């Protein structure tokens, strides 16, 4: 079995590469990643010498390079993690989101059509459903919830999902889609809420909470997400969408306070800054379908997952310190300079 994993040098993709190489010693895993600011080859160092692993530095938008790779590897499956993934960046500059997230998906699926494939899996997001109101805790996203996006990021992901379903209906491509909630865990790029707050707190820097911090996210430990995708690509039904997440809802301010407590840092580091434009209020997944069909449930409680995550960031300072001292520093200064304290 040969699987092309795109975006495998990023947060979730790298965790998935490790999961698959560990669990299936007879599988060949080929990582296709063009190493944007979010891709980090050092993350993949532990598997670089594994004879069952190959890294290829190309973009999923480069048709020629993608076709060449398919010709060489003749993959049985493709799992597409490659994407521009940060909402705030999409608000500043949507274009690259359209290129990678939509066009890149089409190129990969065209290659699947041309060379044949057992399964094309699209890693999507619950953000395609838009948001839920805070005063309706009884509401959850199901696979039937209408697509209703808020940001250029989520719109580009929704467009890709529709394209994936269209390739299934029109060309009979054997596809599946997973829509998961916010992941956290090792190798999470420090521009996202949890790793950003851990890194800032450890450096005694202000902890910039957007607005009141009452927005709710449904946090999923990354290993649980990898297990869900593993189940879907092997046992999930073709042409289906599976929501992944569930019952780990927390407000942003709760998260930041937990991080302060775990690190023994004062809550006085918290600063409330200008809110994100179009900020989604609440995400919450109903995982009934994947539970009933595939037996999946999130295994890691938030209290345990956040401890493991913090421990990882403490033990792997070099990984994130290298990132925040490099080009990312310019991004941070630019993005947070215009977020005035409120
Ligand atoms: P990430 O930003 O950490 O990593 C993205 C990876 O894709 C990087 O290694 C980057 O170099 C690579 N990449 C970007 N553009 C590429 C291109 N044109 N060609 C090849 N590689 C390219 O992202 P992540 O958080 O690991 O997210 C992975 C996937 O999961 C994305 O599709 C995202 O939409 C989805 N998702 C993420 C979350 C989350 O909480 N992080 C939640 C739901 C869905
Ligand atoms: P993020 O990690 O960017 O994920 P997403 O926008 O895809 O949910 O943000 C999670 C939540 O945290 C979101 O409500 C925005 C908020 N947030 C802050 O309050 N401060 C920050 O510095 C960041 C990066 C996010």
From TrEMBL:
It holds the Pfam family GDP_Man_Dehyd. GO terms for molecular function: dTDP-glucose 4,6-dehydratase activity. It is an enzyme of class 4 (lyase). Residues 4-309 form the NAD(P)-binding domain. Its EC number is 4.2.1.46. Keywords: Lyase, NAD. Belongs to the NAD(P)-dependent epimerase/dehydratase family. dTDP-glucose dehydratase subfamily. This is dTDP-glucose 4,6-dehydratase. It comes from Dorea longicatena.
């Amino acid at each position: 079995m040969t699987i092309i994993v795109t975006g495998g040098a990023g947060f979730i993709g790298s965790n998935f590469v490790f999961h698959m190489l560990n669990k299936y010693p007879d599988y060949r895993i080929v990582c296709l990643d063009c190493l944007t600011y979010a891709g980090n080859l050092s993350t993949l160092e532990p598997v670089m010498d594994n004879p069952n692993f190959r890294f290829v530095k190309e973009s999923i938008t480069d048709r020629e390079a993608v076709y060449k790779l398919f010709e060489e590897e003749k993959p049985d499956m493709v799992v597409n993690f490659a994407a521009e993934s940060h909402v705030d960046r999409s608000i500043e500059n949507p274009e690259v989101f359209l290129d990678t997230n939509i066009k890149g998906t089409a190129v990969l699926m065209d290659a699947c059509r041309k060379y044949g494939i057992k399964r094309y899996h699209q890693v999507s997001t619950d953000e395609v459903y838009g948001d839920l109101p805070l005063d309706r805790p009884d509401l959850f996203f199901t696979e039937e919830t209408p697509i209703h996006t808020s940001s250029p990021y989520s719109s580009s992901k929704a467009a890709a999902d529709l394209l994936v379903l269209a390739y299934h209906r029109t060309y009979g491509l054997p596809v599946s889609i997973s829509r998961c909630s916010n992941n956290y865990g090792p190798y999470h790029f420090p521009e996202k809420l949890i790793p950003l707050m851990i890194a800032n707190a450890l450096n005694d820097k202000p902890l910039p909470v957007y607005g009141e911090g009452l927005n709710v996210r449904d946090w999923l430990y990354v290993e649980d997400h990898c297990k869900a995708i593993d189940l879907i690509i092997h046992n999930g039904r073709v042409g289906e969408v599976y929501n992944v997440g569930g019952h780990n809802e927390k407000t942003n301010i709760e998260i930041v306070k937990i991080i302060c407590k775990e690190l023994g840092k004062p809550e006085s580091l918290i600063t409330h800054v200008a809110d994100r434009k179009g900020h989604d209020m609440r995400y919450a997944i109903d995982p009934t379908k994947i539970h009933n069909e595939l037996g999946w449930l999130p295994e890691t409680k938030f209290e345990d997952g956040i401890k493991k995550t913090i421990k990882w960031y403490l033990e792997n300072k070099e990984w994130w310190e290298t990132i925040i001292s490099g080009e990312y520093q310019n991004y941070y200064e630019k993005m947070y300079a215009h977020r005035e304290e409120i």
